[in-house]
Design brief:
Layout (H helix, E strand, L loop, with lengths): L5 E5 L3 H12 L3 E5 L11 E4 L2 E4 L10 H13 L2 E5 L5 E4 L3 H9 L4 E2 L6 E4 L4 E5 L2 E5 L1 E4 L3 H9 L7 H8 L3 E11 L10 E2 L7 E6 L10 E6 L1 H7 L4 H16 L4 E14 L8 E2 L5 E3 L16 H25 L1
Parallel strand pairs: 1-2, 1-11, 2-7, 11-18
Antiparallel strand pairs: 3-4, 5-6, 8-9, 9-10, 12-15, 12-16, 13-14, 14-15, 17-18
Helix pairs in contact: 1-8
The chain binds flavin-adenine dinucleotide.
Amino acid sequence: MEQPKRIGIIGGGLAGTFAARQLQVEGYEVEIIEKSQSVGGRMATRRIDQGTADHGAVFFTVRTDELAQEVDEWLERGLIRKWFGDDFPRYIAINGMNQLVQSIARGIPVHLNEQVGRIEADATTLRTIADSQTRVYDAMLVTAPVPQAYDLLQASRLTLDATDHAALGRVTFEPTFVGLFELKEPLEIGEVGLADEGLVPGMLKLVNNAEKEISATPLLSVYMTGEWSEAWYDKEEAETLAEIERLLQAQLGPVELISRQLKRWRYAQARDVFNTPFLKLNHHPLWLAGDAFLEADDASGRTRVESAVISGLRVAATIDAHFKQHVLTK
Ligand SMILES: Cc1cc2nc3c(=O)[nH]c(=O)nc-3n(C[C@H](O)[C@H](O)[C@H](O)COP(=O)(O)OP(=O)(O)OC[C@H]3O[C@@H](n4cnc5c(N)ncnc54)[C@H](O)[C@@H]3O)c2cc1C
């Protein structure tokens, strides 16, 4: 009997985790390689003293049947809940967005704290090289944000077509700063703990994680706009955090703070997207997927939780079809 094909997936965000789960179901030997200390990627949650704050995705919405099916199951398993909105609900994960990815990744082999520096190819296999670690696969999937994925491919010994260079090189992402502030006293933000209108210039969203019911303490996540984050990107972190705090005080009036922290996302949201849910390199069994790879008829046109999930599912189906086709034509 033929050995199961080995698929290496770079990136344990939503796209990588969904692709991994699907390929595992189809009988492949799958491994995720993740540079951070946990899976989740931009589904990010931080513990601060006794509190918990989301500092990546705030909530998610559903337009596709596939995600709707997952949502029904997650609701049943108590992994998520509806935050607000009747016609177009906003969902959040119980105990923070990162927990949802952790739950989906359960049972999938993951190598954490391993940043792939380059990929090498020979006639039949691909190898990831990370510090002193080398891993060998029959096929690979790269789900890092496109500019990072392109940097990785350029540092690798792979053959890329001019069309791949052109397609990948044009995609840029905008950065996002998120300030995390622990308040001395509870405070209500809007009706449900979210304000995204009437905010001071530069501020995109203000979220109270206590009202979101993921934090035992009043912890605010202050999301800055892409434009503001771009302008402040290269300044000292202390100066940037102080400015976000000044804007927060201007927004809310004087509030007493216990602590403050800063999160800087270099690649938060794609400015340019693909109109295809994944990309395959012509010369290698290597695919790219992630939130910037949208279906041609995507109803939103934006990178988001749903686009990452759908991209992961589509690329998994294609990798499976690739190997099944291979067997049939042998
Ligand atoms: C601040 C912020 C707010 C957001 N708010 C919302 C929202 O409210 N609603 C919504 O729908 N979406 C939101 N999003 C977008 C959403 O979070 C993303 O679209 C989605 O999580 C992306 O998933 P992904 O798997 O494509 O990429 P990622 O989550 O970025 O996963 C890629 C993974 O690859 C890893 N990686 C990269 N390079 C390497 C390497 N060389 N070796 C090993 N590992 C590597 C990274 O560490 C990361 O874990 C937000 C994003 C941010 C940053």
